[in-house]
Design a protein that fits this description.
By secondary structure, the chain is of the alpha/beta class. The protein has a single domain, classed as Alpha/Beta hydrolase fold, catalytic domain (Rossmann fold, 3-Layer(aba) Sandwich), CATH 3.40.50. The chain is built from 13 helices and 14 strands. The strands form four sheets. An eight-stranded mixed sheet has the order 3-14-12-10-9-6-5-4, with helices on both faces. A two-stranded antiparallel ribbon has the order 1-2. It has a two-stranded antiparallel ribbon with strand order 7-8. Strand 9, helix 9 and strand 10 form a beta-alpha-beta unit. Helix 6 packs across helix 7 and helix 7 packs across helix 9. The longest helix is centred in the N-terminal third of the chain and has 19 residues. The protein starts with a strand and ends with a helix.
C-alpha cells in the first residue's frame, strides 16, 4: 500500500531552521528502498532451522530481483533514499502517530527501528560483566571509542555523556543501598549524520535489567505519583514505583558521576538543546525492557517540565522507541503523555511475558479502564503509544522471546519469516516446559528463570 505523505522542501545549510513554512508535496514513500545501514554487520542468534517467526501488522515484501548496479547508480539511489528520509523525518518520528507506516511496515521506518535498536544493543555489548574487572558492572570503554569498540564505528553519533542509576533498594544481606551502575549514554548526531537525517538528533539509549537490585525494582508493581513538576504535581499521574526509584534515586558514593539518573539526563539533554537551538532537532529515547521504561519516564519528564523547547520558542519533538517494554504507568500517565505530544512506538513480541507486566489483570483491556471514569481506573496500568507486534518463539531457548538481538534480527530479515499456527498452548506453559527440560549456560538460565518467575508471581500461580 503506497503511503502519501507531505514532503517539505529541503532547507539550505546544516539542518538550519526554515525562515518560512515549507510547502507540501506528495511522494510515493512506500516505494522507497530501505537505506543501507551505516553500522557494521551484526551477528544474530536467529537461524531458519531453529526458529519460526511471524510478524503481525506487517506484510512480507517480495524478494527484489538481483541487479548488478554500477557504482554511479548505487550512489544515486543512496542519495535519493537519504533525501527522502531527511524530508519525511517528522512522520518517521511519529508526528502523525505512524499512520499508514506500521501496517504495512514502511521500509524507512523499519530501517530506523533497526538503527535505534542497534544503538540500544551497544549498551549490552559495552557493559562489563567480568567480576574480576575494575569496571565490573560499568562500561568497558571510554566515551570517545565506545561505539567503535562494539563494532558501530559508522553509527554517526558522538557520545557526550554516560548515565548511571541505582534503585533505592537494600538487597538482603547487603551492607547498604545498592551502588550506581552504568545504565546507558547520551549521544548527538555528527554533522554528516545530521545532514542525512534532516535534523540534529539527540539520542539517549538505555540497557535493560541486569543487576539483582534492578530485578527487584522490576517486581515493585505498586503505583506511585510521579510529581515531576513541583508547581503542578498531578496526583492522577502515577507510575510503577520500581522504575521511578531507578530514575530518581541518588547515590552520593558513585565515583563516576553525581546526582540521580534523572538529574544527569535533564542536565545533559537541555545542554545539547541549548547548543544546537538554531538547528532542526529531535530527541530520540530508546531502550530495551526496563530501559524502555526509563526512556518513557524521561520523555514525559522533559515534556512535562517544558525542557524540550529551544531558545527560539520551538518545541523539539520527543520520540520513544521501546523494545520489549513493560507497562510504566496508569491511565492518567498515558493520557498526559498523549497531551504533551510524547510519541511512543512499542516494538513487542506477543509471546514476551515482560510486555504484559505489570498490571496483568488491571490494565487498559480491563472493562471500563481508559473509557469511563470508574473508581478503579486510576489503578489500571496502561501501555502508551503505537504497537508494532512481532510473533516469534525459539524452541530450546525461552529467553529468546525477550532478547533484543532476536527483535533486531527479525526486523532485519523479514523475508525469512515463517507463519506459525497457534497451537493453543499458553506461552507460560511453553517457557516452563523448556526451562525444565533443557539446560542453558548460566546467563541464559538466569534470564529464563527470572522472566518465568516474574510472570508466575504476577498472575498468582
Amino acid at each position: 500500500m503506497a503511503v502519501h505523505l507531505p514532503v517539505p522542501q529541503p532547507s539550505s545549510g546544516l539542518c538550519a531552521k526554515p525562515q518560512q513554512q515549507r510547502g507540501n508535496a506528495s511522494t510515493a514513500a512506500a516505494a522507497v528502498a530501505t537505506p543501507p545501514s551505516t553500522f557494521a554487520p551484526q551477528t544474530t542468534r536467529l537461524s531458519a532451522p531453529t526458529i519460526a517467526l511471524n510478524i503481525r501488522h506487517t506484510t512480507t515484501p517480495a524478494a527484489p530481483p538481483v541487479v548488478v548496479m554500477t557504482e554511479r547508480v548505487a550512489k544515486k539511489q543512496n542519495e535519493e533514499t537519504t533525501a527522502t528520509l531527511a524530508s519525511m523525518w517528522r512522520e518517521i518520528q511519529g508526528a502523525r502517530d505512524w499512520a499508514g507506516l506500521v501496517e504495512p511496515l514502511h521500509p524507512l521506518l523499519r530501517a530506523e527501528i533497526v538503527r535505534y535498536g542497534e544503538l540500544v544493543a551497544a549498551t549490552y555489548k559495552a557493559f562489563d560483566l567480568d567480576a574480576c574487572s575494575k569496571r565490573y558492572l560499568n562500561c568497558k570503554y571510554g566515551k570517545a571509542r565506545m561505539l567503535e569498540a562494539v563494532g558501530m564505528a559508522g553509527a554517526g553519533y558522538d557520545v557526550t555523556r554516560y548515565i548511571y542509576a541505582a534503585p533505592d533498594i537494600a538487597l538482603p544481606g547487603a551492607a547498604g543501598p545498592c551502588p550506581s551502575r552504568w545504565i546507558g549514554y547520551v549521544a548527538v548526531a555528527s554533522d554528516e549524520t545530521a545532514r542525512r537525517l534532516g535534523r540534529r538528533d539527540v539520542v539517549v539509549s538505555f540497557r535493560g535489567t541486569v543487576t539483582g537490585s534492578e530485578w527487584v525494582a522490576n517486581m515493585m508493581s505498586s503505583l506511585e505519583q510521579a510529581r515531576f513538576d513541583p508547581a503542578d504535581p498531578r496526583p492522577d499521574v502515577k507510575v510503577e514505583s520500581g522504575f521511578l526509584s531507578v530514575y530518581t534515586s541518588d547515590d552520593a558514593t558513585c565515583r563516576f558521576t553525581y546526582g540521580s539518573c534523572r538529574n544527569q539526563l535533564l542536565s545533559e539533554v537541555t545542554r545539547l538543546i541549548s547548543k544546537y537551538k538554531h538547528e532542526e532537532m529531535s530527541i530520540t529515547l530508546a531502550g530495551h525492557s526496563m530501559g524502555s521504561s526509563l526512556a518513557l519516564l524521561l520523555g514525559y519528564d522533559l515534556a512535562e517540565l517544558g525542557l524540550n523547547c529551544d531558545g527560539c520558542g520551538d518545541t523539539v519533538p520527543i520520540t520513544v522507541y521501546s523494545f520489549a517494554g513493560p507497562r510504566v504507568g496508569n491511565t492518567g500517565f498515558k493520557n498526559r503523555c498523549d497531551e504533551l505530544g510524547v510519541k511512543v512506538l512499542r516494538v513487542v513480541n506477543v509471546n514476551d511475558p515482560i510486555t504484559k507486566l505489570p498490571g496483568i489483570f488491571l490494565n487498559e483491556n480491563f472493562f471500563g479502564a481508559g473509557r469511563l471514569e470508574l473508581p478503579w481506573s486510576c489503578a489500571c496500568y496502561t501501555h502508551v503509544g503505537v504497537e508494532l507486534a512481532l510473533d516469534f518463539f525459539k524452541a530450546r531457548d525461552p529467553a529468546c522471546v525477550h532478547d533484543l538481538e532476536a527483535y533486531i534480527g527479525l526486523l532485519k530479515c523479514p523475508n525469512k519469516v515463517a507463519v506459525v499456527k497457534n497451537d493453543g498452548e499458553h506461552v507460560l506453559s511453553k517457557a516452563m516446559k523448556f526451562v525444565l527440560q533443557h539446560s542453558f549456560d548460566t546467563w541464559r538460565w538466569q534470564m529464563a528463570a527470572i522472566q518465568v518467575g516474574e510472570l508466575v508471581q504476577a498472575i498468582g500461580l
